Amino acid sequence: MKEKIEALRLEAIEALSLAQSLQEIEALRVKFLGKKGELTAVLKMMGSLSAEERPIMGQLANAVRAELEEKIESRKKELKEAEIEKKLVEESIDITMPGNRRRIGHKHPLSIVLDEVKDIFLGMGFKIATGPEIEWDEYNFEALNIPQDHPARDTQDTFYLSENKLLRSQTSPVQIRVMEQQKPPIRVIAPGRVYRSDSVDATHSPLFHQIEGLVVDKGITMATLKGNLADFAKRLYGEDTKIRIRPHHFQFTEPSCEVDVTCFRCHGEGCPMCKGEGFIEILGAGMVHPNVLRRGGIDPKEYSGYAFGMGLERLVMFRFNIDDIRLFYENDLRFLKQF
Amino acid sequence: MKLSKKWLNDYISLNVTDREFALGMTMSGSKVEGYEKEGEELSNIVVGKILELKKHEDSDHLWVCKVDAGQPELLQIVTGAQNLKVGDYVPVALDNSVVSGGKKIKKGKLRGVLSEGMLCSLEELGLSINDFPYAVEDGIFVLGDDCDKTLGKDIKEAIGLDDTVVEFEITSNRPDCLSVIGLAREASATFGVPYNMPEIKNKGGEGEASNLLKVRIDAPDKCYRYAGAVVKNVKIEPSPRWMRERLRASGVRPINNIVDITNYVMLEFGQPMHAFDLRYLDGAEVIVRTAKEGEKITTLDGVERELSPEMLVIADANKPVAVAGVMGGEYSGIMDDTTTIVFESACFNGTSVRRTAKKLGLRTEASARFEKELDPNGCLMSLLRALDLVEQLGAGEVVSGVVDAYPKVKESVRLPFRPDYMNEFIGINVSREQQIKYLESLDIKVEGDEIIIPTFRGDLQQQADIAEEIARLYGYENIPDEPLKGVAVGYLTDYQQFLKDTNNLMLSSGLTEIITYSFISPKAYDKICLPEDSKKRKSIRILNPLGEDTSVMRTTALPSLLTVLSHNYNNRNEEAAVYEIATEYEPWESDDRLATEIPKLMIGLYGANIGYYELKGIIEEYLEKIGVSRYDVRPVKDNPSYHPGRTAEIVVDGKAVCILGEIHPKVLANYEIGTRVYAAEVDLNTVYELRNTERTYKPLPKFPSLKRDIAVVCDKATPVLSLQRAIENAVGKNLESVKLFDVYQGEQIEKDKKSVAFSLTLRAADRTLTDEEADSAVKKALNALSELGAVLR
To answer: How many domains does chain A have?
Structure first.
């Protein structure tokens, strides 16, 4: 009997190793281990054995059964894995083909840079203020220390809408609106559309955007102005950016200055982009004129402040090397999709 | 302002390069735009003398000259000029030279004869007859006695074309810097080198000016001062080379000695001067008065101008002879037979000059200066300088004395000197002594605790103004960088965050942002087929627009959107999906109100796979994410810009939030768009008001759901939304969702009917629903649908 069991074992193992499908394995399982299987049949003959032999044979038969069961399972697993493997190979695709994209829109280049500027100032504790585009002459000029018939009005050719209303030529009137509504400490920026009757060409547009800034508090000095704007320039253009401030004149600030940053292309060496200067002018600034503070209801004896203003288009044109301001308003998708 | 460095050097001797000068002046507040060396492009042109002149054998107009140009050998040069004779000194462009315009000259043959260079005209030196009035036009420039005739000398030095011209941008608060003296003062303060004033020698001649000329100021609020002097036996001729040179460098055309003197003094001192012929002054009296109603004057430029009573004129007994501070009258100018002239050095109210010039549309160099408020105390010195120059030039006989009407002498402004405040305000630490030095270098006096400001510095009125003077001489670049101190929190307001969210949702819906002008053409309203009586046609007009196309503030942003789509369509962009947060401008209700600025979210789409439902999908997604959940969708059949069968309005609580649909074919034709366009206009203020951003967590379902599908047949015109609402209302709270999954029209269905199929998900929160319950829910739904004429398919 022992020989018979061993023969069955070998036969089964041989058959299993040759089996190529789960069905074949199942058939083998039935053939050897099933109720009517061959090993079962052998076991049924146990009764004819002696009492000494019976447990030995029983043990042997069970060991073989266990071994075969394990072999069946492992062979099954092997085959399953091979099958998956095969399927995976068949399912290979060309992974270099272009993806089916979920289209995301393009932010306008003006918004890209404006959002950066906003984030920088929000991070410095500024809030964002707004004001009307259709503004009182009084807010656009008089309140900013530019009386009627002042020559400074010449530098801003203004669109008038009526005797006392105009399209704001600068975002500076928002300074007045903020001071009227809020007491110091004040830290705001005010981005928005401004209008000037400039004929359209590559560098002029009758509509463009400015970003105004205003800080009013106790102990604000020109040194604060300088430090803050130097910080801003570093965050916008990189850590190695330097600023240069030059005296200038604006009616609503005193002292006033223009602020240059090291040229983004040549980093101060001098190149055609900066006309050999090494610096590019990006904003105008100054200490808020005492007349303006007073007009905003703030006592210049107690508080001081600084204001600044920059042209967004200019920043963006330098950033992306855009040479024609008209592209911003033409909205050709071949242009917009570059950003 | 163009500054001649040679002129500046008369008053200050600086030991800096042009570049250092430019940078130094810029950093101390007088911004240099650039500088240019005169005649820089000319090279290898020298003085030569014509020794021999022969006709060219093969030409009837060419000449062959032998020229001594100080070279080792004599040169042979062929010229076509007809104005030369032996012995003339001329500019000779040698072999390998460059003349004006960058033209290179090389030796070569002209009709077979060797020419070793070229003789030059004024034009070839970059000059004109105004610079050398004795030269002939269209000929070679023959050097006069005012030139250096050393043979071989560089022509630029020989004729004084070797100045450096520095171009300044002078801000409107500093009219004093629109002058050589003003800039000499700034240069002195900048570089710490003293400057000198011109020495004015005025011998004066016979007679007494006040016997020949009277002055009366009738409008002292508009004319602060009027000083005049008389010059007899005037000899009108060109002014000398040095004066012409400086005028040229300053960008002023030399005319004749008297006119040149007035310009010279204006450039030197910043004080506009006027000279006129005494002959034409009836009654020999200058009356400074306002114009009479309807009074007219023909100005020097030959234009007759009507004056109005607020304008100031210089008049004689009978008529205005000049518009004060703007321009002289036709007959008052200097003519060739003029013998006796009056020099006027006056000071007028800036605003008055500005208004007058503006109203007459006549901006002149003089008016541009006067309107910045000049210093009346400068009038006399300028007048004396003019007389001094008359004597230097031998241009006439100066009559002794001046007439000077100066009703109210302008006093210096005095301010307390507060050095500590200066340091505190600027953020620096500069000693009192050093501050005094800075101020004194600008001719600002400090006496004890008081600052005395010279009257030519009208811009200095308060402490902040003084702070700027100290700061700029200390050097803005030397002020330390201080960080912004104190705690402040920057954040977006709810509304700003809402706009930011809107932008982000649009971008993630695949729309590209556009930015358009706020002004449009009034014709745009026709293009979008707005009815004649539409309220939207009432838009704010710009009083001084650049052109019709940008003349009104849009009351609707639709034309802007369509213009962009049209541009893209016509530039062969196959598809477009764009949006803008655009402002619309509603006219003010009354004069004391401002306009209403309404933000709209504008969306525009066209392209192959784009239809109404793509647009609606974007809107639905947007509204859901931004927090507007329950709304009605109503057909819009009467908006003439939109397709009457493919346009809807989204309504919440009776408020229209948005219109969306296909653009009317007529409108598309007006915009030359040859494809269907879908557009939406979302009223952002209303969305902001209605939106609910609160979210409350609902537990995930514990019990299973049941699904049931319903397909019904109904009239083609029955809106799917009404069917859906009917199901929702009929089934009630156990209806988790109802989704449209099919709409069918065609062979299987009666004409004018459609089949609509919904998938219902039913679920109870507290138990497992039975099949019977689900079936009964379906029955309820079908009953409700049948009331709308929809029957089970």
So the answer is: 2
